[in-house]
From TrEMBL:
PANTHER family per record: THIOREDOXIN REDUCTASE 1-RELATED-RELATED
Claim: tRNA-binding is one of the keywords in the record: no
Protein name: Thioredoxin reductase
Keywords per UniProt: FAD, Flavoprotein, Oxidoreductase, Redox-active center
InterPro entries: FAD/NAD-bd_sf, FAD/NAD-binding_dom, Ferredoxin-NADP_redctase_2, Thioredox_Rdtase
Molecular-function GO term, any one: thioredoxin-disulfide reductase (NADPH) activity
GO biological process terms on file: removal of superoxide radicals
GO cellular component, one term: cytoplasm
Gene: trxB1
EC code(s) of this entry: 1.8.1.9
UniProt subunit comment: Homodimer.
Length: 326
């Protein structure tokens, strides 16, 4: 083995709530975890101002602050948190190989994948401007809908998730306008029927976003156009929700791991195990249903416990740490 190859017991890929929680558990179980943060240290929550639904913060907390706290908690137990990006993996043998920034090779007894998912946006300038300002653009109705209670919002999307999110918003908001690009939904009939039968949801078919309007700080409306007639009109709204899907960050694993048709890693139900022994998955990389920080953290815990049990079964000198359960 070349000297430049590092050997680690537990490698964690990703620094969102799943990765840091896995690091806390793995470090306390004496697995000496090494965690690579990737291009977005702290993960998706670093793009949001207010997190009000993570237990333990009665006054709420900003996403970036919460992620710094999780990082500090993992470091308190001496998890080795590093800058760097895993660019390649080889899970074909007993030892799992990963490469950092295409250069550094690491051999791992266990790997915990916590690479999350990225919400898709339309990509228009005004959307990105108010997204960055935290001024009313969101890709998560369950996370942010509460901030628009009794207000008017617009949601873009036509699939099952978009229908579910529109329905969720309809229970909080005065009015929800749903923009559907084609002349029909992509969603299942039952989901489409549900939004069509909800009184305070107005559906505009053949309609796309021209611009998100605002006062420079917050969203005040949306200018839309009909893609058949090119007619434009403005809709007053304080919130603009984008529900056009997520892309799980799993491309580098597809040669070795079973993924579903949209790229989410398939885990053994009720566990964090993948189809490769010693490789575990947590958080949004395997979850297209819940997509919440608290569920990501929960599955990060599961992955560390599963990895610990795997190591104990493989190596009789590695004892399951009682501190994990304290
Ligand atoms: C705008 C917004 C607001 C939200 N608000 C809330 C909220 O209020 N409450 C809530 O519960 N949830 C909220 N969510 C959802 C929540 O952020 C996610 O469910 C959660 O962050 C998922 O955690 P994760 O650890 O699985 O992955 P992520 O947070 O997506 O983190 C993934 C990590 O993996 C790293 N990574 C990816 N690929 C690689 C690689 N190849 N090598 C190394 N590292 C890699 C990234 O750098 C990142 O650190 C929000 C999401 C968004 C987009």
């Amino acid at each position: 083995m070349s000297e430049s190859i590092e050997k680690v017991k537990c490698l964690i890929i990703g620094s969102g709530p799943a990765g840091y929680t896995a690091a806390i558990y793995a470090a306390r179980a004496n697995m000496k975890p090494v965690l690579y943060q990737g291009m977005q240290p702290g993960g998706q929550l670093t793009t949001t101002n207010e997190v009000e639904n993570f237990p333990g913060y009665p006054q709420g907390i900003t996403g970036p602050e919460m992620m710094i706290e999780l990082q500090k908690q993992a470091e308190r137990f001496e998890a080795d948190i590093r800058d760097g990006w895993i660019t390649k993996v080889d899970f074909s043998g007993d030892v799992h190989k990963v490469w950092v920034n295409d250069v550094k090779e690491i051999h791992c007894d266990t790997v915990i994948i916590s690479t999350g998912a990225s919400a898709k946006y339309l990509g228009i300038d005004s959307e990105q401007k108010y997204l960055k300002l935290g001024g009313g653009v969101s890709a998560c109705a369950v996370c942010d809908g509460f901030f628009y209670r009794n207000q008017e919002v617009v949601i873009v999307g036509a699939g099952d998730s978009a229908c579910e999110e529109a329905h969720y918003l309809s229970k909080l908001c005065k009015k929800v306008t749903m923009l559907v690009r084609r002349d029909e939904f992509r969603a299942s009939k039952i989901m489409a029927d549900r939004v069509m039968n909800t009184e305070n949801i107005e559906i505009l078919f053949n309609t796309e976003t021209d611009e998100v309007l605002g006062d420079g700080q917050v969203v005040t409306g949306v200018r839309v156009f009909n893609n058949k007639t090119n007619e434009k009109h403005e809709i007053p709204a304080t919130g603009f929700f984008v529900a056009i899907g997520h892309k799980p960050n799993t491309d580098i694993f597809k040669e070795y791991l079973k993924l579903d048709e949209t790229g989410y890693i398939i885990n053994v139900p009720g566990t964090s195990k993948t189809n490769v022994e010693g490789v575990f998955v947590s958080g949004d990389a395997a979850d297209h249903v819940y997509r919440q920080a608290v569920t990501a953290a929960g599955t990060g815990c599961m992955a560390a416990l599963d990895a610990e049990r795997y190591l104990a079964a493989k190596d009789s000198t590695f004892e399951i740490s009682t501190s994990t359960y304290n």
